[in-house]
Each structure stands twice: as C-alpha cells, then as structure tokens.
Amino acid sequence: MDIKLAQQDVQITFMRGSVGQIVSGIIWLVSTALSTWMGERYGILALVFGGMFIFPLTQLTLHLLGRPRALPKGHPMNQLATQAAFVAPLLLPLVGAASLYHTNWFYPSFMIVIGVHYLPFIFLYGMWEFSLLTITLLGGGVAIGLLFPDSFTMGGWFTGITLLLFAIFVQFTFRFSKK
Question: Where do the domains of the chain lie?
Fold first, then answer.
C-alpha cells in the first residue's frame, strides 16, 4: 500500500474536504441563525441532529456534482475515515455536560470536539491544511468559552464562517499548487 496514493484518492474523492466543509459550515450557520432568532434550544437541536446528516449530505452533493460518493470498498483509508467520523458523536456527552454547566459553552465545547475530530484528517487526506483547521477550532473554542462567557452564538458564527472559508482555502491552495 502506498500511503501517498491512498491519501490522493481521499483528496480526489472528497474534493480535498471542501464539500464536507461547505455542508458542515451551512449546518453550523443554520444552527446559529436559529439560536439567534428563534432561541437556543432550536439551534442546539439543529446542530446535534443536523450533524448526523453531514456525511449523507456530503455524499448527495458529491453525487449531484457527478463525483464518486465514497472511497471504494477495501480502500486502505476507509477504516481511518470511519474512526474519524465517530469521534464527534462519541464526544457529544462532553458537550452536553459543559452546556448543562454553562449554556453558553455549547458552541465553544462543540468547537473543541470538532477540532479534535479533524486531527486524523491531517493524515487521512495527507493535508497540512487540516492542522490549521484543528488549531483554529480548538483555540477558538477555548478562547470564546473563556473570553466571551456571556455570548451564546459567537462560537457558532465563528465556526460556520471558518468552515466555509476553509473550503475555499483548500480549493485555492490546490489550484495554486498545480500551477
């Protein structure tokens, strides 16, 4: 098995992660908008339940773009991708505990969980760019939770925008590196 080739397969199949980041960013922004204009409970439910559909919506979007929806069966990166996918749901009780203690820690604690979730993506995709996303979300979650304890939605807006900007960034760095 050639790891570099396996990582290139992941990059090509999932468009360097950009489609998943767009889907995730939209879900975060919808959640935060609901929190802002309808109430915290609606935003929380939107992110928790919307998050369950990130991968299926990513697959649907890839399909609509005429791309493969997943890596082929038996691909050497499939197991790592599956393990990385389960990091966030398995850490949701931690988000729940933090939020029960301090409601305004919902988005910042979720940011930390998602930042941890992206750590294996550095190897899975073979892209240093995911280290920037990890650091931004982890550091942002800690900073917002500590420095802005009275803001419920700041972390949600920050994360949604960060994910969308990351999608643009990874496509730009890809196109720039090919010239």
Answer: 3-177
